[in-house]
Specification:
The protein is an all-alpha fold. The longest helix has 57 residues.
Length: 169
């Protein structure tokens, strides 16, 4: 599509209905730059979700390792045979096999990175959860130490109130 054609299509769309043409923006209230954090919620991470992402990445890594290279040896042999027989196709097939192996390695590395990152993230969040739990439990212990009520909850402790003398009329 040529640039002039693109500009013409944009102009036609704008003439039909200006409210439907939205380039590089979202509708107001749909998030984006003007949205406040409270309007779309808090970030939540669940251990099961992290574990599942890590497991899927590891499974994909294994499958790519086992099955992704199945055709590589035969492709390389065929490329060598074609090249020895004088066919230009042999060099092209060798190039494709080499690029396939490079891309496969890149994808395997990405899967390993995701799997390892999820494992580390899971451990970090688990450590954070334990730390927060310890901090909160120590606050409960501290609060219990200050709970020396003499009367009912909510009433002032008479021990700490100044004594009032009865008034003589």
């Amino acid at each position: 599509m040529a640039w002039e054609e693109w500009e013409q299509l944009k102009a036609q769309a704008a003439e039909r209905d200006a409210t439907q043409l939205r380039l590089n923006q979202v509708e107001p209230g749909m998030g984006g730059a003007g949205a406040t954090p409270g309007s779309y919620g808090d970030l939540r991470v669940h251990q099961a979700d992290l574990a599942k992402v890590g497991e899927h990445a590891f499974d994909l890594f294994d499958r790519l390792s086992n099955k992704g290279r199945a055709a590589l040896p035969s492709s390389q042999r065929a490329a060598g045979d074609l090249t020895r027989q004088g066919f230009a196709l042999g060099g092209g097939l060798q190039h494709v096999a080499k690029r396939w192996d490079e891309q496969l390695n890149s994808l395997r590395d990405a899967c390993a990175h995701i799997s390892n990152h999820m494992r580390v993230t899971k451990k970090l969040h688990q450590g954070d959860e334990h730390y927060i739990g310890r901090q909160l439990s120590s606050i409960d212990v501290l609060d219990a130490g200050f709970d020396e009520r003499v009367g009912k909850p909510g009433e002032k402790n008479p021990v700490h109130m100044p004594t009032q003398k009865p008034k003589d009329d």
